[in-house]
Specification:
The radius of gyration is 19 Å and the shape is globular. Strands 1, 2, 3, 4, 5, 6, 7, 8 and 9 form a nine-stranded antiparallel β-sheet that branches. About 7% of the residues have low confidence. It has 362 residues and is an alpha+beta fold. The protein has one domain: Catalase core domain (Catalase HpII,  Chain A, domain 1, Beta Barrel). A hairpin with a 2-residue loop joins strand 6 and strand 7.
Length: 362
């Protein structure tokens, strides 16, 4: 466990770029146009990222007792239990076959938390945490994201066979870099995903958040029986990841440990570049809560429609004690609001925040 003290949160940890507003408008407009084009093709609007879901899960989060003061922050300040709903997904902004490797997402909505709201207009009293199964972003700043967006769009529009070749090539390069003792960058991590069962993956917020008096990144790691799925391959097919997840929850539950990695050095653990890996040797990921999901019908038709069309997950839907930090998180404020508003408008579906799990269909 680290002996270094976590830094105190302060406003000047964030440094807005001079052209940030213009870049944000340009990127959000491009993403909205792509989302609208996909909606026209499908005659139904999806999210502009993580469009394809694999499960909608109902569960509970138990905040651990006797957390040290630096971890007992924000909604984790007091031990207790909260209802949660999670959406498991693949990262592309369109519906692709699961035969194409892709980053996986695990979005968690903690229902009924107290505290000053970041975005009161979103309604409700919930806290959203959005995580992906690798710890850094290839496009860790807004300027880099603009460059990467074109590459991501080009790859997304490529035929399935070409996308599979791109992923295979990335896996080969990644292996070569690792063999030479180097660390593959986040671009290769994103392209080189395999077909491992996502229930056995560890997920990360990638970018930083305020953690009460401090700053942190969060991670979600499988524990117990579900950890046995780590690295277990899923057969390639159009919806085989969904099938694997649904089959698991038909017979068993899942337990995950939510962990916080506190920032102890703002120079080597910056908030403004989400491509920089925070060294766990300087500050390890430390357990703060346990998430449990009992056996359930994880993708029943009514639940799938509710999760994909009604629910919205947004890193800015939460409390001020967990304010998203850094340029990537700032652009997400505009991007997520644009995506959610357009999706709900085009589908003529009201956006609403659940007040309890009773509002999530079985």
């Amino acid at each position: 466990m680290t002996t270094r003290r976590p830094i105190a949160y302060r406003d000047d940890l964030e440094i807005e770029q001079p052209d940030e507003a213009a870049l944000t408008r340009e990127i959000v407009a491009r993403m909205a146009a792509t989302q609208a084009a996909h909606a026209e093709r499908h005659h139904h609007a999806h999210r502009d990222a993580h469009a394809k879901s694999h499960a909608i899960l109902k569960g509970r989060m138990t905040v651990h007792q006797d957390l040290p003061a630096e971890l007992a922050q924000g909604i984790f300040a007091h031990p207790g239990e909260h209802e949660i709903v999670a959406r498991l997904s693949s990262a592309p902004g369109d519906i692709h076959s699961d035969a194409v490797p892709a980053p996986r997402g695990f979005a968690v909505k903690v229902i009924g938390v107290g505290g000053e709201r970041l975005s009161p207009t979103l309604g409700g009293a919930n806290q959203d945490f959005l995580m992906v199964n690798f710890p850094t972003l290839a496009f860790g700043t807004i300027a880099k994201y603009k460059v990467m967006l074109g590459l991501l769009e080009k790859n997304a529009d490529a035929p399935e066979a070409a996308q599979r070749l791109i992923a295979a090539a990335a896996r080969g390069v990644k292996g070569a870099v690792e063999a030479l003792g180097g660390s593959p960058n986040a671009t290769l991590d994103g392209l080189a995903r395999d077909h491992a069962n996502m229930l056995g993956e560890t997920f990360y917020t990638q970018a930083a958040i305020r953690y009460g008096d401090h700053v942190a990144k969060l991670s979600l790691a499988p524990v117990g029986g579900v950890a046995e799925l780590t690295g277990r391959q899923v057969e390639a097919g159009f919806s085989t990841m969904r099938d694997a997840v649904v089959d698991h929850f038909r017979h068993a539950g899942a337990t995950y440990e939510l962990r916080a990695q506190l920032c102890v050095d703002p120079d080597t653990m910056p908030v403004e570049d989400a491509a920089v890996l925070w060294d766990p040797a300087l500050s390890p990921h430390r357990a703060i809560a346990t998430l449990t999901f009992p056996p359930q019908d994880a993708y029943a038709p009514a639940r799938q429609v509710h999760g994909d069309d009604h629910l919205a997950f947004n890193p800015w839907n939460g409390v001020a004690a967990h304010r998203p930090l850094g340029g990537i998180m700032r652009i997400r404020k505009a991007a997520y609001e644009s995506s959610s508003s357009q999706r709900h408008r085009l589908n003529a579906v009201a956006r609403r925040e659940p007040r309890s799990l009773d509002e999530i269909p079985d």
